[in-house]
Write a structure and sequence with these properties.
alpha+beta, 4-stranded mixed beta sheet, 4 helices, about 45% helix
Length: about 100
């Protein structure tokens, strides 16, 4: 289900203070990158991803692939950093960026 504008606004404010937990470089979406993406989304729900790719169109294509492979929603993109979200059915309240911010 797509995020509403209110949800995106809330997640952007939470994500503003986060550091990127995943970096995707020229090798693209390798098996290791996808495994780390899945782990990070399961733990934190809302994460920043740094894309170290110079070409804007290639970055956008890679980001679409990443969201599709990770079954996550794109919240925001600023330059080479993207904020993505995937709801966890059983979030860990100590790790989830969403629940830690609401507490």
């Amino acid at each position: 289900m797509p995020l509403t504008n209110e949800q995106k606004k809330e997640y952007k404010s939470i994500g503003h203070h986060l550091k990127p937990v995943l970096t995707v470089a020229d090798n693209g979406l390798t098996e290791g990158v996808l495994a780390e993406l899945d782990r990070a989304l399961n733990d934190h729900e809302l994460i920043k991803v740094q894309l170290r790719i110079a070409e804007r169109d290639a970055r956008q294509g890679l980001l679409e692939e990443l969201c599709k492979a990770g079954r996550c929603e794109l919240v925001q993109t600023i330059g080479k950093v993207a904020l993505v979200y995937r709801k966890n059915a059983k979030p860990n309240r100590q790790l989830s960026n969403i629940h830690r911010n609401q507490a």
